[in-house]
Automatic annotation (TrEMBL):
Protein name: ATPase RavA
SUPFAM superfamilies, sorted: P-loop containing nucleoside triphosphate hydrolases
Gene: ravA
EC top class, as a word: hydrolase
Keyword terms: ATP-binding, Hydrolase, Nucleotide-binding
Residues in AAA+ ATPase domain copies: 44-188
Superkingdom: Bacteria
Organism: Thalassobacter stenotrophicus
Gene3D superfamilies: Magnesium chelatase subunit I, C-Terminal domain (1.10.8.80), P-loop containing nucleotide triphosphate hydrolases (3.40.50.300)
InterPro entries for the chain: AAA+_ATPase, ATPase_AAA-3, CbbQ/NirQ/NorQ/GpvN, ChlI/MoxR_AAA_lid, P-loop_NTPase
Enzyme Commission code(s) on record: 3.6.3.-
Family note: Belongs to the MoxR family.
Pfam annotation, one family: AAA_lid_2
Amino acid sequence: MSDDAMIKEIDALGDKLREARSEIAGTIIGQDTVVGLSLSAMLSGGHALLMGLPGLGKTLLVETLSTVMGLNGNRIQFTPDLMPGDILGSEVLETAPDGSRAFRYIEGPIFAQLLMADEINRASPRTQSALLQAMQEREVTVAGQTRKLPAPFHVLATQNPIEQEGTYPLPEAQLDRFLVQIDVPYPDRDTERDILLATTGTQQAKPTQVFTPEALIDAQGIIRRMPVGDATVDMILDLVRACRPDAPEAPAIVRDTVAWGPGPRAAQALMLTSRAWALMDGRLAPSPEDVAALAMPVLSHRMALSFAARAEGRVLADVIREVTATVTHVDAAA
């Protein structure tokens, strides 16, 4: 493809994304960063973990994304008694009119293009692990048979703070499957006023469809073809490797505080999401500012502080911000 054709494709996709964000903004008031990160994850073909207290609009955001992106969505409310079969589906024994019996597979709610895993950390680790194969390989194996999931396939999971009662921490292997972790904060006063006025009247805004599943798959292809400069590639590698305590590039703050750091998936996530972030800003290639802006959502769930660092009151976000500023010479997003 020629450079001119590529530029036209990127510009057209940028226009469509601005239309999608406008539709989302009619329902999700404020939270521009949260919306941008969620769209970046979907454009990159990945999954997102929404972190925040109840009542901050996480569920509404996922439902709005499903409508605007034109995806067939299902929702699973995770509870302590949820079983893997409730997600993946199961085989049932049926009796035909002639008296013969045969097993029939009934698909679970995971067979959707956009799966909302609501309060994912309220389910037991056994049930959480049922998503591992689906999130990585886009297929599930039930009763010895592998079945493909619809395309595109995205998981947008919500999670309450782990300090709340009745929650189970997600295993590290599953956390790594999420492209980004998105912290959903409380709105500021002006935004909360707008929410109050918009949601307590007789009419509420309804989003309309902008994308189709095919258009989203095409957009994911465009993201992967976007050019990335060698300097940005080296910056991504430098940042990810600097966050590993046993790496030669690790600064003293990482060696002293971090128990384990991000793997290669973190570099892949930074490469893809920085492209999507640049495109949504109307640019043709990512910059150091994009890498710095995405460092926190990409790295925070792929690292852990050591016990001694936690006992000293150290905060992982501060470590990521310091390393990011050192590598990119740009302050990382809070």
